[in-house]
Amino acid sequence: MEKNVTKGIIFMLISALGFAMMQMCVKLTGSRIPTFEQVFFRNLITMFLCGFLAIKNKERLFGKRENFKYLFLRSLFGFLGVVCYFVAINNMATADATILQKSSPLFVTLFAILLLKEKLTKSKIIVLILCLLGTIFVVNPRFNSDLTYGFIGILSACFAGLAYTLVSFLNKVEKTNTIIFFFSLFSVVCCIPFMMIDFTIPTAYELMLLFFIGIFAGIGQVGLTLGYKYAPASEVSIFAFATVPFATIFGYILFNDKLSPHTALGIMLIFISSLYTYLKNKKAML
């Protein structure tokens, strides 16, 4: 696949939008619906959709034999990352959980350099730091949540970083539908025994929200996989930070959450950093 950073950025922004909407649905159902039940629905819809598309396009559902271990590891780390994130967001202040999980692009850049031999430049370091600072301003974390859940939040970012780095590698050797289907099926199967232990029958409203968790997660997952397909992980991973301002804006529109000055400053920092990265990459292609 030919490198196209602009397409990669667009898909990463679509991904961030999907995950921001998913995050709100997770929070709305978290008071009563157990974590593994949420994760199950998160992946169920995507599994059927990508499985259908893979069969329709005559693609391998489980990939090539030589890539099975990479698909398995991507799915394992992705599943652990999602579970840790859902546990954190359901047991911590939302802001605290978000700032910890949104450090995943830092891990993506680190792992891309260590495992994929991508180059680390001064501009990438500066942009990552600015995005992280912007995220801190936006979510205004209190850092007073239970230390155990804080550690789980950091683990979610680390696992996500490993998973996304493997996605970047797998995009060169496997089809998009195959990668997403394998991950979704793996997550659904892993969730079933844990979900049955503490299964809660959802109300009609909760069932609708669980359905939308799956829809928005599917949008986020497809956008993320295509984003890493078109551009190196270290160049587009910072656009995952866009989930933060998206979630903040949606909270303001839908729930009348207040936009404070430090929130506006944070969104501006993230926007400037992302715009700088886009313009720099566009200039390099000219």
Task: Explain what the structure shows.
The protein has 286 residues and is mainly α. The chain has twelve helices and no strands. Helix 2 (35-56) crosses helix 9 (204-230).
Helix content: over 70%
Task: Report the uncertain regions.
Answer: none
Question: Which geometry do the CA atoms define?
Answer: globular
Number of strands: 0
Major sheet description: none
Structural class: mainly alpha
Strand content: under 5%
What is the gyration radius calculated from CA atoms? 18 Å
Number of helices: 12
Could you tell me the mean pLDDT? 81
Distance between the termini: 19 Å
Order of helical and strand elements: HHHHHHHHHHHH
Which descriptors would you attach to this protein?
single chain; mainly alpha; 12 helices; 286 residues; 78% helix
Write a brief structural summary:
The chain is mainly alpha-helical and 286 residues long. The protein is 78% helix and 0% strand.
List the helices and strands and how they pair.
Elements: H1 5-29, H2 35-56, H3 68-91, H4 94-101, H5 104-115, H6 122-139, H7 147-170, H8 176-197, H9 204-230, H10 233-236, H11 243-255, H12 261-285
Helix pairs in contact: 1-9, 1-11, 2-3, 2-8, 2-9, 3-4, 3-7, 3-8, 4-6, 4-7, 5-7, 6-12, 8-9
